[in-house]
Design a protein that fits this description.
Elements (H helix, E strand, L loop, with lengths): L1 H24 L7 H18 L21 E3 L9 E2 L2 H7 L5 E7 L2 E8 L2 E7 L5 E3 L2 H4 L15 E8 L2 H9 L11 H9 L4 H7 L2 E9 L8 H10 L7 E4 L4 H11 L7 E8 L2 H6 L10 E5 L5 E12 L4 E13 L2 E7 L3 H6 L7 E7 L3 E7 L19 E6 L2 E6 L5 H11 L12 H9 L16 H5 L6 H14 L1 E2 L1 H7 L7 H10 L4 H6 L2 H5 L5 H12 L2 H11 L3 E2 L14 E4 L9 H10 L3 E3 L6 E5 L8 H8 L4 E2 L1 H8 L2
Parallel strand pairs: 2-11, 19-20, 21-22, 21-23, 23-24
Antiparallel strand pairs: 1-6, 3-9, 3-10, 4-5, 4-7, 7-8, 10-11, 12-13, 12-15, 13-14, 13-18, 15-16, 17-18
Helix pairs in contact: 1-2, 6-7, 12-13, 16-17
Length: 651
């Protein structure tokens, strides 16, 4: 019996470590958060029962190794995880009659900031708790981090980098291709914070909320509340908190529980930390947890339902995603009937089968997930053929994650998604070609490769007879396609759908190669990888695309129908090396992006924060008391109206 339990312990350690590696180091999810917590509790109970803790157990290890893409640095003080509970009464008992601060447990990426002589000197991610990644340049473009503070001693603090739900939705709205959309704010934030090019970080809208002061020479009268007040005075946004005691803690938990329903900042629970710092420090720590704080995780609202079917959704990359369809249930105030199962590994881990009784919940009260399969029939068949084209599928395993793929290059799912991306707003921008319309055109054989978009005139009679189409609609489509013939190289490059090449990367690559497509086409993988902001993964994608014969041929055909506008050449880069910040509403430009494009065409750069390198702040309200205006005045940087900027820099 003990031998079986030991074997189970080893199995749990292996599974949980793989799940942690996928989640923290690769931004992948091989098991749900609910399942991770359940297995972690099972492992903890086994260790207590057997009196054995394995060296690589997640109960004594913290996090996982940092990725190699950024410089690494060892933390002066280890960053430990917190013990967790889902019991409100246990949280109250933990107080032991004392006061404590109850605050949000934010769901982003933990960062350590170091200030010296009033300036931000260093920013490092949590990493594995012992070693993190240096992301100082990226931290400098977070939306709300002060670059200089009045305190002149050494200051070290910790906080959470996050992207709000509204920011997450804004970014996803700008992505036409459904398969390219980000899955949740935490993954988007993690990738944004760890970019090699901080221009991308600046565009993402990352915020920082301080939750702990590590070092500062000041008398806080043994009060954590005074520490937070000190940080606020220095200009930091501090995580929302409340001073609680055993008599009012339950009411305050209810306050946070109600607020999370509409709270824009991702949170997966609460943190309780003793107000009396000396008392907290006197408690010491375990191998993994400090004893002066504890985390409270929301008890997920579970609903039991029946799995009706598994929808297999094919994408333009060939990945086929499993989506569970179940009898509708009410969760956190809304009706849900679908949940992504992410990959084959999770499908098999849950032992799913049609008709199984399952429990579902909303991860962080937002994203529907399957918590548990009560039936565990394991009878679900993985499709042997693609649901769209009927060609054989392939199961690929990368980093312990099994996923289903269709390798047929002529699969209509790939074609539909690819055509949808090409005609999207940020690519050729063709009005009148929705995904459903493209699907109909493909089904009727009007479209085979990209160039066929500009040869639809051949099918005028058939198209005008289609439901929803008439002569007027067809003529509007022809005019829109004619307009789309004249485009720019960055728009075309993005529209080709090269894996990992988004709008920002497309612009950056075009600038690097001076808008010479042939030069980009002929670049070696090594040359591409050396470009700042590209790296090995993107370089492989670009090189593979331009050296695949079919793709090359189709691109050459498409180029024959397009007129690529010439971009501003290098000698006209009048703003080269200059950095600008835009804030407030505009009148001469449609929006800030339009002005940003004009600046970038001339070699300039637009950032999100005013720094010593900023040439000027562009704000039509030059006398406002906004934080950007204050910062510009403090650094003696000119604040120009839109007209004044255009007269001085865009003449």
């Amino acid at each position: 019996m003990a031998e079986n339990k030991m074997a189970r312990m080893r199995e749990l350690v292996s599974l949980l470590n793989r799940a942690s590696e996928a989640y923290y180091a690769k931004d992948e999810e091989i098991i749900s958060n609910f399942e991770y917590d359940r297995l972690y509790d099972e492992l903890t109970a086994l260790e207590a029962e057997l009196g054995v803790t394995l060296a690589d157990s997640p109960t004594v290890q913290v996090g996982f190794e940092a990725v190699d893409a950024l410089p690494k640095e060892r933390h002066e003080t280890p960053m430990l995880s917190l013990a967790k509970t889902k019991s409100r009464e246990e949280l109250r008992d933990w107080l032991n009659g004392r006061e404590a601060l109850l605050s949000w447990k934010l769901d982003g990426l933990t960062i350590v900031l170091t200030y010296e002589n009033g300036s931000l000197q260093k920013a490092v991610t949590r990493g594995n708790g012992e070693v993190g990644e240096v992301i100082t340049n990226n931290a400098k473009v977070f939306r709300n981090i002060p670059l200089s503070i009045p305190y002149r001693g050494e200051l070290i603090l910790r906080g959470e980098a996050v992207i709000t739900y509204s920011g997450f939705e804004r970014i996803n709205r700008e992505i036409e291709d459904a398969e390219a959309k980000y899955k949740n704010p935490r993954n988007l934030c993690s990738g944004s914070v760890r970019q090699l090019d901080n221009r991308i970080t600046a565009q993402r809208g990352v915020f920082f909320y301080a939750f702990s002061l590590v070092r500062a020479e000041a008398d806080f009268h043994n009060s954590r509340t005074e520490q937070f007040a000190f940080l606020k005075e220095l200009g930091f946004d501090v995580v929302e908190y409340r001073l609680v005691n055993p008599d009012n803690i339950l009411d305050n938990i209810s306050y946070f529980e109600e607020k999370i329903q509409t709270y824009d900042v991702p949170s997966d629970g609460l943190v309780l930390t003793y107000e009396d710092m000396a008392y907290g420090a006197s408690l010491g720590r375990t191998a993994k947890f400090p004893r002066d704080a504890i985390a409270f995780k929301w008890a997920d609202e579970l609903r039991e339902t029946t799995l009706l079917e598994m929808e297999w959704s094919a994408s333009r990359t060939g990945l086929i995603n499993p989506v569970a369809i179940f009898e509708p249930v009410e969760l956190e105030g809304t009706t849900v009937s679908r949940a992504s199962v992410h990959n084959i590994s999770i499908v098999r881990g849950l032992e799913l089968g049609i008709g199984d009784r399952i429990t579902v919940y909303k991860a962080n009260m937002i994203i529907p997930q399957i918590a548990e399969n009560l039936t565990k029939s394991g009878s679900l068949e993985i499709p042997a053929v693609c649901p769209v084209c009927g060609q054989p599928t392939r199961i690929s395993q990368i980093n312990d994650v099994q996923s289903l793929y269709c390798d047929n290059p002529d699969c209509d799912a790939k074609k539909i998604k690819s055509f949808t991306l090409l005609v999207s707003r940020d690519a050729l921008n063709v009005d009148g070609l929705s995904e459903s319309t493209l699907e109909k055109f493909l089904a009727r054989g009007f479209l085979h490769e990209f160039v066929d978009l500009f040869r639809l005139e051949r099918f005028r009679e058939e198209i005008t007879q289609m439901e929803g189409f008439g002569e007027k609609s067809f003529q509007n489509l022809m005019e829109s396609l004619e307009k789309a013939r004249r485009t720019t190289l960055p728009r075309l490059l993005y529209g080709l759908g090269i894996e990992n090449v988004g709008v920002a990367n497309a612009k950056m690559l075009c600038r690097y190669f001076h808008y010479d497509l042939q030069a980009l086409w002929e670049a070696t993988e090594e040359e591409l990888a050396e470009i700042d902001g590209v790296g090995g993964v993107i370089a492989r994608s670009i090189y593979a695309y331009f050296h695949e014969e079919k793709a090359k041929g189709q691109l050459e055909n498409l180029l024959g129908e397009l007129e690529i506008e010439e971009e501003v050449v290098q000698e006209e880069q009048t703003l080269a090396g200059m950095s600008f910040v835009i804030t407030g509403s505009l009148t001469h430009f449609e929006n800030r992006n339009a002005m940003k494009e004009e600046i970038e065409k001339r070699g300039g750069k637009v950032t999100g924060s005013v720094t010593g390198k900023t040439v000027c702040l562009i704000n039509n309200d030059t006398t406002s008391s906004s934080s950007k205006n204050k910062k510009a005045k403090e650094l003696e940087i000119p604040i120009l109206s839109e007209e004044a900027f255009m007269e001085e820099y865009l003449h």
